[in-house]
């Protein structure tokens, strides 16, 4: 039973576009993080990007409890994974730049 078939054509299209665009954004974010780690850690723009991404995962954590039942272990594991994302993205925001990062930026 396809859930999208239960929606109107417009709402089905909106759901599909939203999911595709969300996947694109998450892949784009991963590419930025792997391609420009020094810039993310040492510039205001990079730290803002990381803080915003942490906010994305924090918001997702809160939404887990609002929109899903928490009566299963899997539904409690997911917020833990999302909070790990928050922590991972916030560590470089509050960490001071090391000499390694400074030399990486100049080469």
Briefly note the structural class of the backbone.
Answer: mainly alpha
Mean pLDDT: 89
Unreliable stretches, pLDDT < 50, 5 or more residues? none
Rounded to the nearest angstrom, the distance between the terminal CA atoms is 55 Å
What does the model show?
This protein is mainly α. The chain is 81% helix and 0% strand. It starts with 8 loop residues before the first helix and ends with a helix. The model has no long low-confidence stretch (mean pLDDT 89).
Keywords:
single chain, 107 residues, mainly alpha, 5 helices, flat
Summarize the structure.
Helices cover 81% and strands 0% of the residues. With 107 residues, the chain is an all-alpha fold. α3 (44-67) packs antiparallel against α4.
Describe the secondary-structure layout.
Layout: H1 9-35, H2 37-42, H3 44-67, H4 73-94, H5 99-106
Helix pairs in contact: 3-4
